[in-house]
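This is your field. Please look over both lines of this record.
***
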Amino acid sequence: MWILFLENQSTFKNEPLTLQELRDVKIDTEGPSGKLWRLEAERAVLESDDSAILYDIKFFSDKRGIELKAPYGRYELNKGLAEINGGVLIKLTDGSEARITSLRIEKGVIKSEEPVIIRKGNIILRGRGIISDSDSNIRILRDVRLEIK
């Protein structure tokens, strides 16, 4: 990001805008029923709109038994809204794993419209779109295909 300083309609200085960068970030998010998620990131760049770009992200909930990992994402500090991108790995309590390109976490609910693959042992479920429920089950929304290998 750059800031352009103007004086009398002419450019006199062009300097980079410094952003605040944090390392080893840990954030606990809470809802009406208590702690929802723990967010950890190797690095966060705070932006002027009360959001942060996060790198090497891990979201997890001991209560729900879900863990999410992704290379990067964005977290809106005041809204508690997270957008996670770059290929997300979801680990569930039953040992299954889901992979999806990107997702959102809003009010403790995981949502996406992207294609998803869920694997457990020799069973593979493919579909499009997911949503989580209050028991941390992941439901595929449409185009579901089952494969047994």
